[in-house]
Write a structure and sequence with these properties.
By secondary structure, the protein is α+β, with helices and mostly antiparallel strands. It folds into three domains: about 35 residues; about 210 residues, Penicillin-binding protein 2a (Domain 2); about 350 residues, Beta-lactamase (3-Layer(aba) Sandwich), CATH 3.40.710. About 35% of the residues lie in helices and about 20% in strands. It is built from 21 helices and 20 strands. The strands form six sheets. Strands 1, 2, 3, 4, 7, 15 and 16 form a seven-stranded mixed beta sheet that branches. Strands 9-8-20-19-18 form a five-stranded antiparallel beta sheet, sandwiched between helices. Strands 5-6 form a two-stranded antiparallel sheet. A hairpin with a 6-residue loop joins strand 8 and strand 9. Helix 13 crosses helix 16, helix 13 crosses helix 19 and helix 15 crosses helix 17. The radius of gyration is 30 Å and the shape is globular. About 40% of the residues are buried.
C-alpha cells in the first residue's frame, strides 16, 4: 500500500471518528440536555397542544471561591386551568385549592421553592366557572411545583394542572438594573421560529443571542438540526447558545446595596449609586443604584424609566471629583508639578465670569497639593490655564469622558464635553473642576481608574465567561488598557491623594493605619433645567478611592443626587466609603501595605 493510500485512509478514518463524536454529542444534547423539554411538550399535548415551551440560559454571579449563583434562571412549575363544563361545585373547588396556597404560605414553602405564592381571587374564580361555553380557561400561570402537585392530587373534575416554565430572578431586586428582565419578543407574531420571550434591559438584553433558546429546534429532524447547527456556527458565524457568568460577586453586591440603602435612608437623596471595580482589568464586582425594581413582579411599576440603568445611561456634572484628573493632565503635560505654587486669591474673573473657591476664601501662595487637599476651584482653574485649551481637550478626550465606556450593557451613554470645544477660557476652567461637562457614573469611575492603574484607560466589563451548551466554556479576557498618561504622572497624583487621606482627612475615619488609601470627594452644583444656571441649594455628592493605593485591588465610586441635610460630600459619603473599604479588605483578605 503506497503512502498516498495510507493518508487517504487516515483522513477518512478521522472524518468517521469526528462524525461519530458529533452524533454522540448531539444525542447527549437531545436526550439529556433537552430531555425536560421533550417531557414538558408531551405533558402539554394532553391539555393545550399548541402551547409554547419556555427555555432560556442562566445568568450567574460568581463568589470569591468560584461558586456560581444563578440570578436569572428558569423556574419549573404549573399553570392552573379550568374547564367550566366539568366543574360541578365551583365554591368547593375554590376552597380546596385556596387551602393549598394558605398552607404553603404558612409553612413558607413558596420561599423554599423560589416562587412567590400566588393569590387565588375568589370572585374571578367563580366568574370563570360561570363561562359554561368554554372548555379551557387559565386561572393562574405561575404555580410552584409543590403547590401544583398538591392541587393535581385533589383530582377536582374540571381543574387541571399542566407544566409551565418562566423566567425567575432569585435575588429579587439584587442588581436588577444590571441583570435586566425579559419580555415579549417584537418578532414573535411574525416569525414562527423566533423565541416568544427575549431580553429587555441589562445583561438579559445585551447577551440575548446567547441566552435565547429556539425550542422549536428540538422537534425538527435529527440530521436536519445537526447540519443546521454546523451551518450556523461554522459557516455563518451565528452566536452559540449558552449561559453567562458575571464578575459580580453576590456577597459584594448585597453588601454594596445594603450600604446604599442605609445611606439613602439617612440622607434621602433623589437617587444614589455605587461601583466597585478592579481598576487594572475593568472587572466590576458590584454596581448598584436606587431606586430600583423587582423583575419578578413589575405590576406596580408606573414609570418604565426605572428599568434603565443610570450608572451607564444617565450623565451628571460630577464636580470636584474630576480635579485629580485635571491635576494628572497638568503634570503629564509638564504644565505643573506637585511642588508648583500659585497665588490663590479666593476668586478670579475669567471672560467676565467669576470663579471662586467653595468658601470664597483666599489661601495665598500655596503648592499644588492644596488644590486637592482643600478642593480649590481657583487652583483647578490655574492648571487648566497653564496647560492650555488644546492640551486640556486632548487629555479629557483620552480619559474617555466624552465617549462610551464599552461596558457589556445596552445603551452605554456618551459623556457631554461639548463645553471644551468652546474657545473661551471660562468653559475650560469650569470643566477643570467638573462643572459644565457631564458623564455617566461608570465613565467617571473608568477615568479615575487611570490614576490607580498607572495611566491606562481600561474597558469595564461584567461578563467573564460564557458556558456554551455544547460544553465549551469561553473565558472573556479583559481588553488591554490604552496608555493615556505616563506611569510617573499617575504615581504623582496617587501620592497626592494619599496625602489627602492621611492629612486632610485626619479628623475622619477614612485613614487606616496599615493600608494606604487614595481618595477624593466631590460636591457639584446641580443644573436647573427650568431657569438655567444652577440651583443654590441642591448638590450632587461623590466620593472615590482606591486601595492599597500603590497596588490597588479595588476602586470604589459613590454618588448621590440632592441629598438632604448636608452640603458637602464629605459629610454624607465618607461613612459608606469606609464601610465598603473595610468590608472588601476583610472579605478578600487583602494584605496590608504599610
Amino acid at each position: 500500500m503506497n503512502s498516498k493510500s495510507v493518508v487517504r485512509i487516515r483522513i477518512l478514518l478521522g472524518l468517521v471518528v469526528l462524525f461519530a463524536l458529533i452524533i454522540v454529542g448531539k444525542l447527549y444534547q437531545l436526550q439529556v440536555m433537552n430531555g425536560a423539554t421533550y417531557s414538558a411538550r408531551a405533558e402539554r399535548q394532553y391539555v393545550k397542544p399548541n402551547s409554547v415551551i419556555f427555555d432560556r440560559g442562566t445568568i450567574f454571579f460568581q463568589k470569591r471561591d468560584g461558586t456560581k449563583v444563578g440570578v436569572a434562571t428558569v423556574e419549573q412549575g404549573f399553570t392552573l386551568t379550568m374547564n367550566p363544563k366539568l366543574l360541578t361545585d365551583p365554591e368547593a373547588a375554590y376552597t380546596a385549592i385556596n387551602a393549598v396556597f394558605k398552607a404553603a404560605a404558612s409553612t413558607a414553602s413558596s420561599s423554599a421553592n423560589g416562587t412567590p405564592e400566588p393569590v387565588l381571587d375568589h370572585a374571578a374564580f367563580l366568574a370563570a366557572s360561570a363561562k359554561k361555553t368554554q372548555s379551557y380557561i387559565e386561572i393562574l400561570k405561575k404555580v410552584n411545583s409543590d403547590d401544583g402537585k398538591a392541587i393535581a392530587a385533589l383530582a377536582i373534575p374540571g381543574i387541571t394542572m399542566y407544566r409551565n416554565d418562566w423566567r425567575y430572578y432569585p435575588g429579587g431586586t439584587l442588581a436588577s438594573q444590571m441583570v435586566g428582565l425579559t419580555g415579549q419578543s417584537s418578532t414573535a407574531t411574525t416569525t414562527a421560529s423566533a423565541p416568544l420571550i427575549s431580553g429587555r434591559y441589562g445583561l438579559e438584553s445585551f447577551y440575548d443571542d446567547t441566552l435565547a433558546r429556539n425550542v422549536d429546534a428540538v422537534y425538527v429532524n435529527f440530521f436536519a438540526e445537526l447540519f443546521s447547527d454546523i451551518k450556523k456556527t461554522v459557516f455563518e458565524d451565528k452566536p452559540l447558545e449558552g449561559n453567562i457568568v458575571s464578575s459580580i460577586d453576590p456577597t459584594v453586591q448585597n453588601f454594596l446595596e445594603q450600604t446604599l440603602k442605609q445611606t439613602q435612608t439617612k440622607w434621602n437623596p433623589d437617587e444614589i449609586g455605587a461601583i466597585v471595580i478592579d481598576p487594572n482589568t475593568g472587572a466590576i464586582y458590584g454596581m448598584g443604584h436606587f431606586p430600583t425594581f423587582d423583575p419578578n413582579d413589575t405590576s406596580n411599576v408606573k414609570n418604565a424609566a426605572i428599568f434603565s440603568n443610570p450608572m451607564v445611561q444617565s450623565t451628571y456634572e460630577m464636580g470636584s471629583i474630576l480635579k485629580p484628573l485635571t491635576m494628572a493632565a497638568g503634570i503629564d503635560a509638564g504644565a505643573v508639578t506637585p511642588t508648583t505654587t500659585y497665588d490663590d486669591t479666593g476668586c478670579i474673573t475669567v471672560n467676565t465670569g467669576k470663579i471662586c473657591n467653595y468658601d470664597l476664601k483666599a489661601r495665598g501662595v500655596i503648592p499644588m497639593q492644596q488644590v486637592l487637599s482643600q478642593s480649590l476651584n481657583v487652583g483647578a482653574s490655574y492648571i487648566a490655564t497653564a496647560m492650555g485649551t488644546t492640551t486640556q481637550i486632548r487629555y479629557f478626550q483620552s480619559f474617555g469622558l466624552g465617549s462610551t465606556t464599552g461596558i457589556d450593557l445596552p445603551n452605554d451613554q456618551k459623556g457631554n464635553i461639548a463645553n471644551l470645544l468652546v474657545k473661551r477660557q471660562l468653559e475650560h476652567d469650569t470643566a477643570a473642576f467638573g462643572q459644565g461637562i457631564a458623564m455617566t457614573p461608570l465613565a467617571t469611575a473608568r477615568a479615575l481608574s487611570i490614576l490607580a492603574n498607572g495611566g491606562l484607560l481600561i474597558t469595564p466589563h461584567l461578563v467573564k465567561e460564557i458556558d456554551y451548551t455544547l460544553g465549551v466554556p469561553k473565558s472573556i479576557s479583559p481588553v488591554p488598557g490604552v496608555r493615556v498618561i505616563k506611569q510617573s504622572s499617575a504615581d504623582a497624583v496617587t501620592q497626592m491623594l494619599v496625602q489627602v487621606v492621611d492629612k486632610a482627612f485626619t479628623k475622619g475615619p477614612v485613614q487606616m493605619e496599615h493600608y494606604s488609601i487614595a481618595a477624593k470627594t466631590g460636591t457639584a452644583q446641580i443644573a436647573n433645567p427650568a431657569g438655567g444656571g444652577y440651583y443654590t441649594d441642591r448638590y450632587l455628592h461623590s466620593f472615590f478611592g482606591y486601595f492599597p493605593a500603590y497596588n490597588p485591588r479595588f476602586l470604589i465610586f459613590l454618588y448621590q443626587v440632592y441629598p438632604k441635610g448636608a452640603e458637602y460630600a464629605s459629610a454624607t459619603l465618607t461613612d459608606p466609603f469606609q464601610q465598603l473599604t473595610h468590608f472588601l479588605i476583610n472579605y478578600y483578605d487583602i494584605p496590608p501595605d504599610r
